[in-house]
Write a structure and sequence with these properties.
Helix content is about 75%, strand content about 0%. Helix 1 crosses helix 2, helix 1 packs antiparallel against helix 3 and helix 3 crosses helix 4. The protein has one domain. The longest helix is centred in the C-terminal third of the chain and has 43 residues. The protein is mostly helical and about 200 residues long. This is DoxX family membrane protein. Keywords: Cell membrane, Membrane, Transmembrane, Transmembrane helix. It is a multi-pass membrane protein.
Length: about 200
Protein backbone atom coordinates (compact mmCIF):
# COMPACT_ATOMS: atom_id res chain seq x y z
CA UNK A 1 0.00 0.00 0.00
CA UNK A 2 1.34 3.38 -1.02
CA UNK A 3 1.98 5.75 1.86
CA UNK A 4 0.60 9.29 1.55
CA UNK A 5 3.27 11.78 0.54
CA UNK A 6 3.78 15.38 1.52
CA UNK A 7 2.30 16.32 -1.84
CA UNK A 8 -0.82 14.24 -1.13
CA UNK A 9 -1.31 16.07 2.17
CA UNK A 10 -0.80 19.44 0.51
CA UNK A 11 -3.30 18.70 -2.25
CA UNK A 12 -5.88 17.45 0.25
CA UNK A 13 -5.36 20.62 2.28
CA UNK A 14 -5.86 22.76 -0.81
CA UNK A 15 -9.02 20.82 -1.66
CA UNK A 16 -10.43 21.35 1.85
CA UNK A 17 -9.55 25.05 1.80
CA UNK A 18 -11.02 25.49 -1.67
CA UNK A 19 -14.28 23.76 -0.80
CA UNK A 20 -14.75 25.76 2.39
CA UNK A 21 -13.77 29.16 1.00
CA UNK A 22 -15.55 28.63 -2.30
CA UNK A 23 -18.78 27.44 -0.66
CA UNK A 24 -18.95 30.44 1.69
CA UNK A 25 -18.27 32.89 -1.15
CA UNK A 26 -20.79 31.22 -3.46
CA UNK A 27 -23.45 31.20 -0.73
CA UNK A 28 -23.03 34.93 -0.14
CA UNK A 29 -23.16 35.58 -3.88
CA UNK A 30 -26.40 33.65 -4.32
CA UNK A 31 -27.92 35.62 -1.45
CA UNK A 32 -27.29 38.77 -3.48
CA UNK A 33 -28.29 37.37 -6.87
CA UNK A 34 -31.23 35.09 -6.10
CA UNK A 35 -32.26 35.74 -2.49
CA UNK A 36 -31.18 32.23 -1.46
CA UNK A 37 -30.17 31.38 2.12
CA UNK A 38 -32.12 34.29 3.54
CA UNK A 39 -30.65 36.88 1.19
CA UNK A 40 -32.51 39.82 -0.29
CA UNK A 41 -31.96 39.17 -3.98
CA UNK A 42 -30.89 41.73 -6.55
CA UNK A 43 -33.49 44.42 -5.77
CA UNK A 44 -32.74 44.58 -2.06
CA UNK A 45 -29.00 44.25 -2.65
CA UNK A 46 -29.10 47.06 -5.23
CA UNK A 47 -30.71 49.42 -2.69
CA UNK A 48 -28.14 48.43 -0.06
CA UNK A 49 -25.26 48.95 -2.49
CA UNK A 50 -26.61 52.36 -3.43
CA UNK A 51 -26.89 53.32 0.25
CA UNK A 52 -23.26 52.22 0.79
CA UNK A 53 -22.11 54.47 -2.05
CA UNK A 54 -21.68 51.85 -4.77
CA UNK A 55 -23.46 53.46 -7.69
CA UNK A 56 -25.33 52.57 -9.77
CA UNK A 57 -26.67 50.14 -7.19
CA UNK A 58 -28.15 47.62 -9.61
CA UNK A 59 -24.91 47.11 -11.53
CA UNK A 60 -22.91 47.04 -8.33
CA UNK A 61 -25.19 44.39 -6.87
CA UNK A 62 -24.89 42.26 -10.00
CA UNK A 63 -21.10 42.62 -10.10
CA UNK A 64 -20.70 41.79 -6.41
CA UNK A 65 -23.05 38.81 -6.62
CA UNK A 66 -21.35 37.41 -9.72
CA UNK A 67 -17.89 37.97 -8.25
CA UNK A 68 -18.77 36.09 -5.09
CA UNK A 69 -20.97 33.35 -6.56
CA UNK A 70 -18.93 32.80 -9.71
CA UNK A 71 -15.55 33.20 -8.07
CA UNK A 72 -16.57 30.99 -5.17
CA UNK A 73 -17.92 28.22 -7.40
CA UNK A 74 -14.79 28.22 -9.54
CA UNK A 75 -12.56 28.16 -6.46
CA UNK A 76 -14.46 25.18 -5.06
CA UNK A 77 -14.16 23.35 -8.38
CA UNK A 78 -10.55 24.36 -8.84
CA UNK A 79 -11.16 25.78 -12.31
CA UNK A 80 -9.47 28.92 -13.66
CA UNK A 81 -8.13 29.34 -10.15
CA UNK A 82 -5.96 32.46 -10.72
CA UNK A 83 -8.88 34.40 -12.21
CA UNK A 84 -11.38 33.03 -9.70
CA UNK A 85 -9.17 33.92 -6.75
CA UNK A 86 -8.45 37.39 -8.09
CA UNK A 87 -12.11 38.17 -8.79
CA UNK A 88 -13.29 36.91 -5.40
CA UNK A 89 -10.51 38.80 -3.64
CA UNK A 90 -11.53 41.98 -5.45
CA UNK A 91 -15.16 41.56 -4.43
CA UNK A 92 -14.12 41.06 -0.82
CA UNK A 93 -11.83 44.09 -0.94
CA UNK A 94 -14.85 46.18 -1.84
CA UNK A 95 -16.77 44.72 1.11
CA UNK A 96 -13.79 45.27 3.41
CA UNK A 97 -13.70 48.94 2.39
CA UNK A 98 -17.25 49.34 3.70
CA UNK A 99 -16.35 47.79 7.06
CA UNK A 100 -12.90 49.39 7.44
CA UNK A 101 -14.13 52.50 9.35
CA UNK A 102 -15.33 50.15 12.13
CA UNK A 103 -11.86 48.72 12.69
CA UNK A 104 -10.64 45.16 12.27
CA UNK A 105 -12.74 42.80 14.38
CA UNK A 106 -16.14 41.63 13.15
CA UNK A 107 -17.61 42.02 16.66
CA UNK A 108 -17.51 45.79 16.10
CA UNK A 109 -18.58 45.57 12.45
CA UNK A 110 -14.99 45.62 11.19
CA UNK A 111 -13.34 44.18 8.11
CA UNK A 112 -12.17 40.90 9.66
CA UNK A 113 -14.66 38.60 7.90
CA UNK A 114 -14.58 39.94 4.32
CA UNK A 115 -10.86 40.55 4.70
CA UNK A 116 -10.18 36.95 5.65
CA UNK A 117 -12.36 35.57 2.85
CA UNK A 118 -10.59 37.80 0.33
CA UNK A 119 -7.18 36.84 1.70
CA UNK A 120 -8.02 33.14 1.43
CA UNK A 121 -9.30 33.54 -2.13
CA UNK A 122 -6.19 35.48 -3.13
CA UNK A 123 -3.88 32.86 -1.61
CA UNK A 124 -5.67 30.08 -3.52
CA UNK A 125 -5.36 32.09 -6.71
CA UNK A 126 -1.62 32.37 -6.13
CA UNK A 127 -0.93 28.78 -5.04
CA UNK A 128 -3.17 27.05 -7.56
CA UNK A 129 -5.84 24.46 -6.88
CA UNK A 130 -3.70 21.35 -6.51
CA UNK A 131 -4.16 17.93 -8.08
CA UNK A 132 -7.74 17.37 -6.90
CA UNK A 133 -9.17 20.02 -9.19
CA UNK A 134 -10.59 20.67 -12.64
CA UNK A 135 -7.50 22.70 -13.45
CA UNK A 136 -5.45 19.53 -13.04
CA UNK A 137 -7.95 17.46 -15.04
CA UNK A 138 -7.89 19.98 -17.92
CA UNK A 139 -4.07 20.10 -17.85
CA UNK A 140 -4.06 23.68 -16.55
CA UNK A 141 -5.47 25.22 -19.73
CA UNK A 142 -7.11 27.95 -17.61
CA UNK A 143 -4.33 28.03 -15.02
CA UNK A 144 -1.21 29.19 -16.83
CA UNK A 145 1.65 30.89 -15.00
CA UNK A 146 1.17 34.17 -16.87
CA UNK A 147 -2.49 34.29 -15.82
CA UNK A 148 -1.64 34.93 -12.16
CA UNK A 149 -0.11 38.43 -12.54
CA UNK A 150 -2.58 39.39 -15.27
CA UNK A 151 -5.64 38.32 -13.23
CA UNK A 152 -4.48 40.03 -10.04
CA UNK A 153 -3.39 43.21 -11.83
CA UNK A 154 -6.75 43.48 -13.61
CA UNK A 155 -8.75 42.74 -10.46
CA UNK A 156 -6.66 45.16 -8.41
CA UNK A 157 -7.13 47.95 -10.95
CA UNK A 158 -10.89 47.45 -11.20
CA UNK A 159 -11.26 47.19 -7.42
CA UNK A 160 -9.23 50.36 -6.84
CA UNK A 161 -11.43 52.24 -9.34
CA UNK A 162 -14.63 50.98 -7.70
CA UNK A 163 -13.47 51.90 -4.20
CA UNK A 164 -12.29 55.32 -5.37
CA UNK A 165 -15.61 56.00 -7.10
CA UNK A 166 -17.46 54.97 -3.93
CA UNK A 167 -15.30 57.28 -1.79
CA UNK A 168 -16.00 60.20 -4.12
CA UNK A 169 -19.72 59.41 -4.15
CA UNK A 170 -19.87 59.36 -0.35
CA UNK A 171 -17.90 62.61 -0.15
CA UNK A 172 -20.34 64.32 -2.54
CA UNK A 173 -23.31 63.04 -0.56
CA UNK A 174 -21.79 64.28 2.72
CA UNK A 175 -21.04 67.67 1.19
CA UNK A 176 -24.57 67.97 -0.18
CA UNK A 177 -26.06 67.05 3.21
CA UNK A 178 -23.90 69.64 4.97
CA UNK A 179 -24.84 72.30 2.43
CA UNK A 180 -28.54 71.50 2.79
CA UNK A 181 -28.19 71.59 6.57
CA UNK A 182 -26.44 74.93 6.48
CA UNK A 183 -29.05 76.38 4.10
CA UNK A 184 -31.82 75.14 6.35
CA UNK A 185 -30.22 76.65 9.42
CA UNK A 186 -29.76 79.99 7.66
CA UNK A 187 -33.34 79.99 6.45
CA UNK A 188 -34.79 79.11 9.85
CA UNK A 189 -32.77 81.64 11.80
CA UNK A 190 -32.95 84.60 9.40
CA UNK A 191 -35.12 87.62 10.25
CA UNK A 192 -35.83 90.63 8.14
CA UNK A 193 -34.29 93.79 9.52
CA UNK A 194 -35.19 97.39 8.82
CA UNK A 195 -35.15 98.16 5.15
CA UNK A 196 -35.03 94.47 4.14
CA UNK A 197 -37.66 93.14 1.80
Amino acid sequence: MKRPTHRDHRDLGLLALRLGTGAVLAAHGTQKLFGWFGGGGLDVTAKAMDAMGFRPGDRSALAAGCGEAGGGALIALGLATPAAGAVAAGAMAGAAAVHAPNGFFSTSGGLEYPGFLGWSAACLGLTGAGRYSLDHVTQHRLDRTWMVPVAFAASGLVTACVIRKRTQSLARATEAAQTDGADGADGDGATDGPGQA
